[in-house]
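Most newcomers find our protein records easier to grasp once they have seen one. The structure tokens are whole numbers drawn from a learned vocabulary of backbone shapes. The record below serves as our worked example for the rest of this section.
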Amino acid sequence: MSDESKSTNITWHDHEVNREDREKQNGHKSCVLWYTGLSGYGKSTLAQAVSTALFEMGCRTYVLDGDNIRHGLNKNLGFSPEDRTENIRRIGEVAKLFADAGIITSTAFISPYRADRDQARALLPESFIEVYVKADLAVCEERDPKGLYKKARAGEIPEFTGISAPYEEPLNAEIVVDTGKAPLEACVQTVIDALKERGILS
């Protein structure tokens, strides 16, 4: 899909209440935690657990989950390379709006292509935190909570990332967690500690 805008006669409107005002009221800075990794690696589980921990700390937080978004905003997109790119483009723009609203925003998407993740990063270069959720593929296939790997191996799911479609691992993710080796609580603490180190949390 083309990046060229088809909208004309439009003007950007600045808000009287800006991001800094919202962050001051919230007592923390906003950012985008971009969780990436193969299906079954625990992206959504970790994103939700971190969001719960932040909420209990009094933070404003929200999770944009891949499957949930495809039920609504992106339900017209499939899993071709072009649709995957458009899927991530839209999420990047939505995440940018959430960050502007002062929210610690998590996105849990496979987002298999580095170029697409880099495009999302470019929208918020100082507030984008890539979280690479990794594990051995054998561990993920053993988990396979949705039975997707079994179907993919049987050829029932075309363009399945990690099996019949590529996944480009992050080269310089800000946070890396191995959910096959570390318990969920430890992975959550790794993310929380990183937010404190970056001054998102005081």
Notes: The domain at 20-197 is CATH 3.40.50.300 (Rossmann fold).
